[in-house]
Design a protein that fits this description.
The chain is α+β, with helices and mostly antiparallel strands and 112 residues long. It has a single domain, classed as Trna Endonuclease, Chain: A, domain 1, CATH 3.40.1350.10. 34% of the residues lie in helices and 40% in strands. Strand 4 and strand 5 form a beta hairpin.
Length: 112
């Protein structure tokens, strides 16, 4: 349990250093959960944080399946409706390897 929260905290610090502003952490609704919601200039960024100790089975990136993406999109739409927000949006991924190497994938997938 702690590893997931530690990874999210590590990702939030990394992104903050890259000029993104944290708006929400662990946003939950009936559709799912979004790890981090941040603002990058005039763009709202929904961020999935994945940590994997091994690249076996495709590593962290492969764990963001089409099903997971669909849940993230539904959850993001819920957030946007709740906030009455019409900012441009994107979905990013923060991938953390076992040696704590961070890979930031911007526009990791489309909401179409």
């Amino acid at each position: 349990m702690h590893k997931g929260h530690d990874a999210e905290n590590q990702a939030a610090i990394f992104l903050n250093r890259n000029k993104l502003r944290l708006l929400a952490k662990n946003y939950r609704c009936r559709f799912g959960e979004i790890d981090l919601i941040m603002q990058d200039g005039d763009t709202l960024v929904f961020i999935e944080v994945r940590m994997r100790n091994s690249e076996r089975y495709g590593g962290a990136a492969a764990s963001i399946t089409p099903g997971k993406q669909a849940k993230l999109i539904q959850t993001a739409r819920h957030y946007l409706a709740q906030q009455d927000c019409d900012m441009p949006c994107r979905f990013d991924a923060i991938l953390i390897s076992g040696n704590n190497k961070i890979e930031w994938v911007q526009n990791a997938f489309d909401a179409t």
